[in-house]
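Student: Hello, beginner here. Can you help me understand the protein record under this note? Any guidance would be welcome.
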Amino acid sequence: MRALPAPLVAVLAALLALAGCASDADSGAVAEPETSLPAPLPTVQLEAFDGGEPVQLADQRGPLVVNLWASWCGPCRTELPILQEFSREYADRVDVLGIDFQDPQTEKAKEMIAEAGVTYPLLSDPDGALDRLAPFPHLRGLPFWAFVDAEGQVVAWEFIAVDDLAELEALVAEHLGVP
C-alpha cells in the first residue's frame, strides 16, 4: 500500500482541525457518563490557570457554566470571547468557569485569553484528571460544556461548538432555567 503524499496529508489534517477538535464528538458518538445526571461535580483539585490558589471543583456551586477548552482547539478560540461576553452580561445570574484541558501550549493559551479579554475564573487540567471522572464522560475532544445547578449538581453536559451568544443563552435557558 502506498503512503499518501505529504501535501494531501497536510490538507486533510487542516480540514480536520477546521471541522472541530474531536473525531467522535463531531460525529455524534458521545460516551455516556458513568453516573446518571444530575450528579455532583467531580472531587478533584485543579490549579488556577494564573498560578493562584488551587480550587476544589466539587466545592463550586451554580448556576454555573463550565467550559473545557485548549489552545489547540479551533472552536475553543471562537468561544472564549463569547464566554467573556456571557460572563459580563450574566454576572449576577450565572457564573462561568473555564478549564484549560490537556493543553501543553501554556503560552499560546495565555495569548488566547489575553486576546479574548477573559476575566472569568480559569483553571488548568494539564494531565486530563477530568477525563472519565464521573459524571464527566471520556473527553475525546473539545469543546466540552457542563451545566451546574445551585447545589453543585451537573445537570447536563454537551460536546458542542458554540458559535454565538444567543446559542449559549439558549443552552443556559434549557439546562439551567436561566432566561
Summary: Confidence is low (pLDDT under 50) at residues 6-19, 23-34. The chain is about 30% helix and 20% strand. Residues 74-89 form the longest helix (16 residues). The two ends are 56 Å apart (CA to CA).
